[in-house]
């Protein structure tokens, strides 16, 4: 399998987006609202829809869910532990560390879905959807916690405003209520 050929289209789009933002009139003033639309509306709707429409057998998916959660918790622990390494922590502030931690475990679902689709097809996307559905709440809680702590806001209030956590919870409740009406 030719992996570069599989990966070049997605990473080319990322590079193109960077170049458009950096060197054209389509700068941050244009991309900021687009990112807001994606984060606050489009991705939550996609997440909600994926949760209610993806058939998931808990017994079959439990090992995949456990693996995703284990890998997710490991990424979170590694990202947070950097602040305690004596030879590294002097190069950034606590605010920079809090925002950098998010990058370590949070913004890879789009790339993961695209690569999984190319490598494994529809069944792979279904497995990736299970992992994303399980890990999105965990990652968002882990991402919101240091930012809330740094801004001295209550974590619960910040979690209630997070669109991805809300979409996941609403999707699970809708799925659960569907299952109850079917039974």
Main features:
mainly alpha; globular; 0% strand; 183 residues
- Specify the helix fraction band: over 70%
Give the number of helices: 7
Which term fits the overall shape? globular
Roughly what fraction of the amino acids lie in strands? under 5%
* Structural category: mainly alpha
End-to-end gap: 45 Å
Low-confidence stretches: none
Rg (C-alpha, Å): 18 Å
Mean pLDDT: 82
Question: Major β-sheet, in short?
Answer: none
The total count of strands amounts to 0
Series of H and E elements:
HHHHHHH
Our count of domains comes out at 1
Explain how this protein is built:
By secondary structure, the protein is an all-alpha fold. It has one domain (3-182). Helices cover 83% and strands 0% of the residues. The protein has helices spanning 3-23, 28-53, 58-81, 94-105, 109-151, 155-160, 163-182. Helix 2 packs parallel to helix 7 (163-182). The N and C termini lie far apart (45 Å). The relative contact order is 0.12.
Topology:
Blueprint: H1 3-23, H2 28-53, H3 58-81, H4 94-105, H5 109-151, H6 155-160, H7 163-182
Helix pairs in contact: 1-5, 2-7, 3-4, 3-5, 4-5, 5-7
Short description:
This protein is mostly helical. 83% of the residues lie in helices and 0% in strands.
């Amino acid at each position: 399998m030719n992996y570069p050929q599989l990966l070049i289209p997605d990473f080319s789009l990322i590079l193109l987006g960077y170049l458009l933002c950096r060197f054209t009139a389509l700068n941050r003033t244009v991309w900021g609202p687009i990112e807001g639309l994606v984060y606050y509306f489009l991705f939550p709707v996609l997440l909600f829809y994926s949760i209610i429409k993806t058939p998931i057998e808990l017994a079959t998916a439990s090992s995949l869910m456990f693996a995703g959660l284990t890998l997710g918790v490991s990424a979170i622990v590694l990202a947070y532990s950097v602040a305690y390494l004596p030879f590294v922590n002097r190069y950034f502030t606590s605010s920079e560390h809090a925002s950098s931690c998010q990058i370590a475990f949070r913004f890879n679902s789009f790339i993961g879905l695209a690569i999984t689709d190319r490598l494994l097809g529809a069944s792979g996307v279904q497995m990736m959807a299970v992992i994303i559905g399980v890990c999105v709440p965990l990652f968002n809680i882990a991402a919101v916690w240091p930012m809330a702590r740094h801004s001295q806001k209550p974590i619960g209030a910040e979690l209630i405003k997070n669109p991805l956590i809300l979409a996941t919870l609403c999707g699970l409740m809708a799925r659960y209520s569907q299952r109850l009406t079917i039974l």
